[in-house]
Design a protein that fits this description.
The complex is a heterodimer.
Chain A: E1 3-9, H1 12-18, E2 27-33, E3 51-57, H2 62-84, E4 88-91, E5 95-98, E6 101-112, E7 116-125, H3 143-147, H4 153-171
Helix pairs in contact in A: 2-4
Chain B: E1 2-7, E2 10-19, E3 22-27, E4 30-34, H1 36-46, E5 55-58, E6 63-68, E7 75-76, E8 81-86, E9 90-95, E10 100-105, E11 112-113, E12 118-122
Antiparallel strand pairs in B: 1-2, 2-3, 3-4, 5-12, 6-8, 6-11, 7-10, 8-9, 10-12
The chains are: A alpha+beta, B mainly beta.
Chain lengths: ~170, ~120
C-alpha cells in the first residue's frame, strides 16, 4: 500500500484532486488539515491526533462508486467495532457515530466529463483527539475520549483501505 | 423531347415528356414517372440529420446542482470545472469536455437534475 504522508495540508481530498497522474489506491495521509471539509463544504475539525486520509479510487462506474461510498461507512464502523468493542451507529449516508456523537465522516468526490476522470474518497476519523472545542463537544467524539487511551492510526488506516479494496472488487465483478 | 446519352460506351435513348403534371422518363421501353412527392422523399434522405457541432455538458448522475462555477458568456477551457452536482452520497465536479463560450446555462442552483440532463450549451 502506497501512503504519502504530510504534516499539514488544507484538505487531503483537495490535494488528491490536484495530482497530475493519480495512481489508483494511492493514499494521502495528513497529520492535520487546515481546511478539512465534508459534504456541502461543511468544515471538518482536523487537529493533530486524528486520522485524515484520501484514497484515489480506480476508475469505476459511477453506480459502483456510490455503492462503495455507502459501504465505506459500514467498513469504518466495522473496524471500530472489531478493534475497540464499541457500538458504532451508521448515520446514512456518510457518517459514523458512537454514543450519539459523530466520530467519522466520509466524502467521495468525483471529477466527471463524459466519463469519470477521477474519484477520491476522503475519510476523517476522530482517533486520538483529546478534546473538542465547545461548539462541537456535544456533537463530536473521538476514540480516545471513548476508550480513555490512544489508538494506532496507521493500523486503522490499513484495515480500512484493505477492506475497501476487497469490497470494490466484489461490487464491480 | 428525345435525348441520346452515351454512358461508358453504351448508348441510351431517353424520352422525356410531361403527363398529368408529372415528368415521364422513358428509357429502353421502360417508363418512370416523377412528381413533387418523389423529389421531396429523395431530398429528405440525403440531407444531413443534424448539426454535430453542438457542445453540450450533461450530468452523468442524478442529484442537485449545488454550485455553478461559470456564467453565460464565459470562455470555458477543456477540463474546466463548470458545476457541482451533489448526489446523496457524493459530490461530482462536472468538467467540460470541450473548449468554448458558455451560450446557455439550463439549470439553477439547488435544481434537481436527472442522469443525462443537459446542463450547459457551449458555442
Amino acid at each position: 500500500m502506497k501512503i504519502k504522508k504530510y504534516k499539514v495540508v488544507t484538505s487531503t481530498n483537495a490535494l488528491a484532486k490536484k495530482i497530475k497522474t493519480p495512481k489508483p489506491w494511492l493514499v494521502l495521509l495528513a497529520e492535520k488539515q487546515s481546511l478539512g471539509y465534508g459534504r456541502k463544504g461543511s468544515a471538518w475539525f482536523s487537529p493533530k491526533g486524528g486520522l485524515y486520509f484520501s484514497i484515489i479510487l480506480p476508475k469505476s462506474k459511477i453506480e459502483d462508486l456510490q455503492t462503495l461510498t455507502i459501504l465505506a461507512a459500514f467498513i469504518v464502523a466495522k473496524v471500530i467495532k472489531e478493534n475497540f468493542n464499541l457500538e458504532p451507529f451508521i448515520k446514512l449516508p456518510n457518517d459514523v457515530w458512537v454514543n450519539g456523537k459523530k466520530i467519522a465522516g466520509i466524502l467521495t468526490e468525483n471529477v466527471v466529463g463524459k466519463e469519470v476522470k477521477l474519484s477520491v474518497m476522503g475519510i476523517g476519523l476522530n482517533t486520538n483527539i483529546e478534546k473538542f472545542p465547545r461548539n462541537l463537544e456535544n456533537t463530536a467524539t473521538s476514540l480516545k475520549i471513548e476508550l480513555g487511551r490512544e489508538v494506532n492510526n496507521e493500523k486503522i488506516l490499513k484495515q480500512i483501505v484493505g477492506e475497501l479494496k476487497n469490497q470494490l472488487k466484489t461490487i464491480s465483478e | 423531347m428525345k435525348l441520346k446519352l452515351n454512358i461508358k460506351g453504351k448508348e441510351y435513348e431517353i424520352e422525356i415528356s410531361e403527363e398529368g403534371g408529372r415528368v415521364k422518363i422513358k428509357v429502353g421501353g421502360k417508363e418512370f414517372l416523377f412528381g413533387e412527392k418523389e423529389e421531396i422523399a429523395v431530398a429528405k434522405t440525403v440531407l444531413p440529420k443534424r448539426d454535430f457541432s453542438k457542445k453540450e455538458i450533461k450530468t452523468p448522475i442524478a442529484g442537485i446542482v449545488s454550485e455553478i462555477f461559470v456564467k453565460e458568456g464565459d470562455f470555458v477551457k477543456k477540463e474546466q470545472k463548470t458545476l457541482l452536482v451533489s448526489a446523496m452520497k457524493m459530490e461530482n465536479e462536472i468538467v467540460s469536455d470541450f473548449e468554448g463560450r458558455v451560450q446557455k446555462i439550463l439549470v439553477q442552483k439547488k435544481q434537481e437534475v436527472k442522469e443525462g440532463d443537459i446542463l450547459i450549451f457551449l458555442q
